[in-house]
């Protein structure tokens, strides 16, 4: 129950490699994909956890391996958070940068394509911000977390 079947350093190394690999895949998948989980996205997350789980501890099912793995995962998260806070370039690399979607009532279709924002997504964001048309928007940004924030012209 408590005895490790896999060396502690191998478990730690496996978790770091898998975490960084999954971070890269999440980054590649795009901001909008992460911000709004659809049922298919949730299913993907659940399946990924099942696929990756045995690789994290090399099949070691001991309590010690689970605690060690959890500690390493929390440690990696804390270190990445600290490094991102300390060095903004790292934060931009890991999180991405805001993209200007609408500027002075003009829509940038290139940003829509790159962020995979559909016309329906845009309409929902406009309505959520109490806007009827794009011309009413002074500035709209796709934030690094995938949410669309808008600044309307003042009446």
Q: What characteristics describe this protein?
A:
155 residues; elongated; 7 helices; alpha+beta; 4 strands; 4-stranded antiparallel sheet
Helix content: 55-70%
Question: How much is the radius of gyration in Å?
Answer: 20 Å
For the biggest sheet, the summary is: 4 strands, antiparallel
User: Structural class of the secondary elements?
Assistant: alpha+beta
Q: How many angstroms separate the termini?
A: 67 Å
- Morphology: elongated
Spatial strand sequence of the major β-sheet: 2-1-3-4
Order of helices and strands: HHHHHEEHHEE
Average pLDDT, all residues: 85
Give the percentage of residues in beta strands: 5-15%
- Oligomeric state of the chains? single chain
Number of DSSP-assigned strands = 4
- Counting H and I runs of at least 4 residues, what is the number of helices? 7
Instruction: Outline the low-pLDDT stretches.
Output: none
Quick gist of this model?
The protein has 155 residues and is of the alpha+beta class.
Task: Write a structural description.
It is built from seven helices and four strands, in the order αααααββααββ. The chain has helices spanning 8-29, 31-35, 39-57, 63-86, 88-95, 109-114, 119-128, and strands at 99-103, 106-107, 137-142, 148-152. The protein starts with 7 loop residues before the first helix and ends with a strand. 10% of the residues are buried. A four-stranded antiparallel sheet has the order 2-1-3-4. Helix content is 61%, strand content 12%. The protein is α+β, with helices and mostly antiparallel strands and 155 residues long. α1 runs antiparallel to α3 (39-57) and α1 (8-29) crosses α4. The radius of gyration is 20 Å and the shape is elongated.
């Amino acid at each position: 129950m408590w005895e490790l079947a896999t060396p502690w350093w191998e478990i730690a190394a496996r978790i770091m490699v898998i975490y960084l690999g999954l971070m890269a895949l999440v980054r590649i998948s795009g901001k909008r994909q992460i911000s709004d989980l659809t049922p298919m996205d949730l299913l993907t997350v659940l399946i990924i956890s099942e696929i990756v789980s045995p690789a994290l501890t090399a099949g070691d099912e001991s309590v010690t391996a689970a605690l060690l793995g959890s500690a390493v995962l929390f440690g990696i998260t804390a270190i990445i958070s600290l490094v991102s806070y300390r060095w903004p370039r790292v934060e931009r690399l890991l999180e991405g940068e805001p993209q200007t979607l609408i500027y002075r009532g003009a829509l940038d279709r290139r940003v829509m394509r790159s962020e995979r924002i559909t016309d329906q997504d845009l309409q929902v964001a406009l309505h959520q911000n109490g806007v009827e048309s794009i011309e009413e928007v002074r500035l709209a940004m796709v934030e690094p977390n995938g949410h669309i924030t808008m600044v309307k012209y003042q009446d």
